[in-house]
Design goal:
By secondary structure, the protein is mainly alpha-helical. The chain has one domain (2-154). 49% of the residues lie in helices and 3% in strands. It contains 6 helices and 2 strands; from the N terminus they run αββααααα. A two-stranded antiparallel sheet has the order 1-2. Strand 1 and strand 2 form a beta hairpin.
């Protein structure tokens, strides 16, 4: 399973990089407002992404585009760090990290999380809060946070 998770995460990280580039280009561009006036880039919101990104399916649509861009980078950073470590990667941890790409308190889970969980046989709790215990992803990862629970206990 170690190799299979890496094979699944590599294209996911590439897609997240592509999404990051798309969000950066959009966030740094002006747009015309209702009266034809040029609006500053700060007015872009997640709902303005056209076409919408399936990666951000569960992200609150009214949130600023910059906040979504930051979360995409945090998720990508964690997945890349886990892949580069050479360690086993807990598929439930991946689901928790991918959960950050959406509203972390709503059910059902986003399709991105559900598909990954189904592919790797992860049983998700009824509530996303039970998966993340009310804690948002920090801006920095902790070395080994991706290790399966059994490995962490034996370390």
């Amino acid at each position: 399973m170690k190799t299979e998770i890496r094979k699944a995460l590599l294209p996911a990280c590439a897609a997240l990089a592509k999404l990051s580039m798309r969000l950066a280009a959009m966030d740094n561009s002006a747009r015309l407002g209702p009266g034809g006036q040029v609006q500053r880039p700060a007015h872009w919101r997640v709902l303005d992404i056209d076409p919408p990104s399936p990666w951000l399916e569960g992200y609150p649509p009214a949130y600023a585009l910059g906040s979504a861009a930051w979360v995409v980078l945090k998720v990508q950073m964690r997945l890349l760090a886990a892949m580069a470590s050479g360690d086993d990667i807990d598929p439930k941890w991946v689901c928790r990290v991918l959960l950050a790409l959406g509203d972390e308190y709503t059910t059902p889970y986003s399709q991105v999380v559900s598909r990954f969980a189904d592919r790797f046989g992860v049983t998700l709790p009824d509530s996303p809060r039970s998966l993340h215990n009310g804690l948002a992803l920090s801006d920095e990862y902790r070395e080994g946070e991706w290790l399966p629970q059994a490995v962490k206990r034996n370390a």
